Amino acid sequence: MKQPNILEEEVKNVVAQKVFKKFDCTRILGKIDFAVKPKLSVSAIDFVEIYFLWSEVKKHATDVLIMLTQLILTIGKARTFDQILPPMFLGCFDNEKIAFIPYSEIQHIFYQNDFNWKVAPSDHKTREFKQIHTLLEKFFVSISWQTYIFYFEKDEKELNIFINENFIVGKTETSRTKIDKNNFITIYGKWFETVKPTIAVDWDAAKKDGIIDGDFYLADLLSSENNTISENLHVLLKSKYYEFDKVKLKSGVFHISRIDFNDNQKAYEQFWAKYERPPAKEYWNYIVDRRDLIVPQDVRERKGSFYTPKIWVELSQKYLADVFGVDWQDEYYVWDCAAGTGNLIVGLTNKYNIWASTLDKQDLGAMKERIQNGANLLESHVFQFDFLNDDFSKLPNSLLDVINDPIRRKKLIIYINPPYAESTSYGIKSKEGVSSANKTYEKYKNIVGIGINEIFAQFFIHIFSLIPDCKLASFSTLKYINSQNFVKFRNIFKAEFKKGFICRSNTFDNVNGKFPIGFLVWDLNNKKQISKIKLDVFDADKEVTRSYFMEKKSFFPVEKGILIIDWLRNYFDKKSEKIAYLRIQGTDFQTNSTIVVSTQPTMNDVRESKITHVTINNLKEMSVYFAVRKCIEHTWINHNFQFLFPNKKWQFDVEFHNDCLAFTMFHRQNTISIKYGVNHWIPFTENEVNAKERFESHFMISFLSGKVIPNAYSNLFAQEENKFYTKPVFSPQATKVFDAGRELWKYYHSQPNININASLYDIREHFQGRNEKGKMNNKSKNNTYNALMDNLRDELKILAQKIEPKIYEYGFLMK
């Protein structure tokens, strides 16, 4: 295969045909170059795909370590092992050689805390590439007998023997999947979703005693005929139920000797029918010893498994120097009390003034290994400590001396990136125990209010209470600045803001969504009420290797009673005939996508009071609300900005009202449909659109022509009502929206087999259709329709730009 111009695909084809001809090499797994699995006559859906090899491929001779490093970064970035059972081997090959490495020997790499998997696997210059490369290098040296490298020409016989002995096709379509040290973590993830919910145990009580769901998984896994056969486990399976091994319980919380299933063990039986238990005995000790790896995502969140990208670490340290002076590392003390593996304090120079603590024993080991490899830290200053639970008496004396000294304490900087997990998220069921299973939560929950659900807030209030004169420099969301849920928190947490910046959340590993993460520096010695603060805005390139300044942005606290929903309630009308429903969830940008005008609300929205009626008497006010919420694009920067109770100037601007009405009528989230009742939202006459029949409702065109006048149902602005409810006269921008809409309606009415009373939503559905999942397609196959719709959207954008300055002028948003 040593051809100068050979292509990578050719290399794959040759290896598949000559080396792995007995196997199936056709499967494509994301960005993994090559995969080998058994050839099965039938692929039964109830059973799990088995792989022997996932491999990196290069067309020309390449260093084995480089290829394997790139493969590991590719797998870790996509977390392929979370969806598919890992293979027996990882490997790599080029046009002259092939190498194998047992997956079980390197799988721990994928479960490192504070590791940035977002880097490009092909970029050999990143710190992450070098880190994996070094780990593999050590592995090759220390366990070389488990690493196999074969050259295609000279080692052909040995390679065939290796494959025949290790790539054993021992499965049929009816066989059970064997469990080994390669796949037991992935199978736990499937068990967590399927079996755990059927175990009738008090999980909160279990956690207090050190019992995790993984202990039940181990009891299942290491069993025969539904009875646990392994010793040294916390939980034992006894045929139809579980028992705790009381000898190993720490607190004696559990007085119940038996834990049952809540579904008569049906999910358990269906799940374990797919797998062969127990694993081979040679794997038992390994699996039990790696109990630390079988923990759910919320536990990893509480531990703070969030890698802080190097660019933000460096920028934060620049800001610390700006606030405290160029010699700050010599003049101040630093404690990272949520250190993980310590990447936040990388780059600090004065090891005698630095302390780092973590609640996780593995992370502690990683930090101490860093020290052995030259990290600038004192081993006595690195320690295991659960900041939200442990007493300060457990701290090293050197740090305790600083905290207890009133003068030196003012020179202590708590420098942290705490976990962002919370026990509740908007519209999401509470995450069990994420933030409530600790002493700090119990201590402050009645004082701080709902904000205590955020773990970072627990760190902040605990620091504020126990180290009151220190400096706090922390990464976190900005909810404590501008959320209503933090009103009580802000009344307690009083400090002087010094400086800060925000960056995009999804530049951090393991953080989902796009919202601002701030790095803010506070002086807790100067007690000041949190007010308007101005932050620098930075973003990063795709690979999160370079940051760039964008703008400055102000953030404000929002108190109760001043939100847009408080304003809108003045116009609720349940007495008049409704012409639509308006969905009104939330008051910030992140919930804007949920604001919809519709004919038929969901039962859930009715139950949760997320809707209000649109009537003749509040059509303009509801349109103002809708347009204000929709005109400005939701970005990661404005994600949490709150829409507010406006000043009185908005009520005198008739053109503003009419612009908002036009915007609402033609917006894509006006989902009025004839499927659910009469369409009162046709903004044209029959003649204007060449309709073939008379419309069922003429409400909207009558309203627009001044023939239908609202009742004086509200006395709020009685003296202005006649002016407010005059016949609409539309601005040039709004008129162009109507013109674009009219052309769309005319084209629709020129088509065969249409509904005369169709709404904008119905017209879109007619041309765009729906996919197999029932979702409306983004585009139509009809190019004329696409052009008309694009024109309407363009005119709507121009109208939105005209409305936007008024939103700030009238106080719906603050700048």
Q: In terms of topology, how is this protein built?
A:
Layout: H1 8-18, E1 34-36, E2 53-57, H2 64-78, H3 80-83, E3 89-93, E4 97-102, H4 103-106, H5 127-142, E5 148-151, H6 156-166, E6 177-178, H7 184-194, H8 203-208, H9 213-221, E7 223-224, E8 227-228, E9 235-238, E10 241-244, H10 266-272, E11 275-276, H11 284-289, H12 297-303, H13 310-324, H14 328-331, E12 333-336, E13 354-358, H15 361-372, E14 382-384, H16 397-404, H17 406-409, E15 412-416, H18 439-448, H19 455-466, E16 471-477, H20 479-482, H21 487-492, E17 496-504, E18 516-523, E19 533-540, E20 547-555, H22 564-568, E21 578-583, E22 597-598, H23 603-607, E23 611-615, H24 619-630, H25 654-666, H26 686-689, H27 699-704, H28 721-724, H29 732-749, H30 760-768, H31 783-809
Parallel strand pairs: 2-3, 6-11, 12-13, 12-15, 13-14, 15-16, 17-19
Antiparallel strand pairs: 1-2, 3-4, 4-5, 7-8, 9-10, 16-18, 17-18, 19-20, 21-22, 21-23
Strand order of the largest sheet: 14-13-12-15-16-18-17-19-20
Radius of gyration, in angstroms, nearest whole number: 32 Å
Give the mean pLDDT.
86
In the predicted model, the low-confidence regions spanning at least 5 consecutive residues are 41-47, 170-175, 297-305, 423-434, 712-725
Q: Main beta sheet, described?
A: 9 strands, mixed
**Separation of termini?**
65 Å
Percent in strands: 5-15%
Total beta strands = 23
Number of helices: 31
Helix content: 25-40%
Using the alpha-carbon principal axes, give the shape.
globular
Structural class computed from helices and strand pairing: alpha/beta
